[in-house]
Amino acid sequence: MVASVQTEARDNMIQQQIRPWDVLDPRVLDLFERIPRELFVPLTHRALAYSDTQIPFAGNQVMMEPRVEGRMLQALAVQPQDSVLEIGTGTGFVTACLAELAAAVHSVEIYGMFTDKARERLDQLGAGNVTLEVADAGTGLGEGGQRFDAIAVTGSLPVLHRGFHERLNIGGRLFVIVGRFPVMEALLITRTAEDAWATESLFDTLLPPLLNAEPAPEFHF
After folding, report:
1. How far apart, in whole angstroms, are the C-alpha atoms of residue 203 and residue 197?
2. Which domain holds residue 193?
3. Contact in structure between 124 and 101 (CB atoms under 8 Å)
4. Which terminus in the chain has less CB density within 10 A, N or C?
5. What is the C-alpha separation between 167 and 115, in angstroms, rounded?
6. 70-105 burial string, b = 16+ CB within 10 Å, else e?
7. How confident is the model over 111-137, as pLDDT tens digits?
8. What is the pTM of this model?
9. Dist CA 25 CA 172 (whole Å)
10. Within a domain: 220
11. Strand 104-109 relative to strand 130-134: parallel, antiparallel, unpaired?
């Protein structure tokens, strides 16, 4: 009985939330069909696993709405040979989705307790192509270091900084939500050359800020 209820809720999520938000990539839709989202939701909010809402968890963090997760995954257009960087492991659901799409995923999280729990959940799904790191990446990961084909930032930035741009391969894509309440914008930034990036506005949404992200400048007159 419980399984049938979850199946119906999952189907409703896909048909009534994700598809109407123009998420039509069959690879992305398949993720929401196969990966048990409830596995990544805190027990106290498990009934909301397939709801069109942000789900809170420890540290004043949230899981994004399924439709926003879907748009993000679709925009990043991750290919089977790609390497992916995720900023903000959280509960690990987006990590699991990226792991299904990519060759390798490196996910960074400031809270070690989140990383430990995410590792348990990812192991349950057999996601062996994921490495997890505990680190503060609010302002980026510094210059140099590994480059990636796609970067997913799962918390908003009050102001767009260049802390992730240099970590993209040429042709690589960065998804990030920028702004302050009540106005935030999801952006897709593509590295087109060694010193050039193209920016596309995707949609408006709201998301709590990434911890220790660079604050927007204050103006004094």
Report:
1. 19
2. 2-204
3. no
4. C
5. 22
6. bbbbbbbbbeeebbbbbbbbbbbbbbbbbbbbbebb
7. 999 999 999 999 999 999 999 999 999
8. 0.94
9. 19
10. no
11. parallel
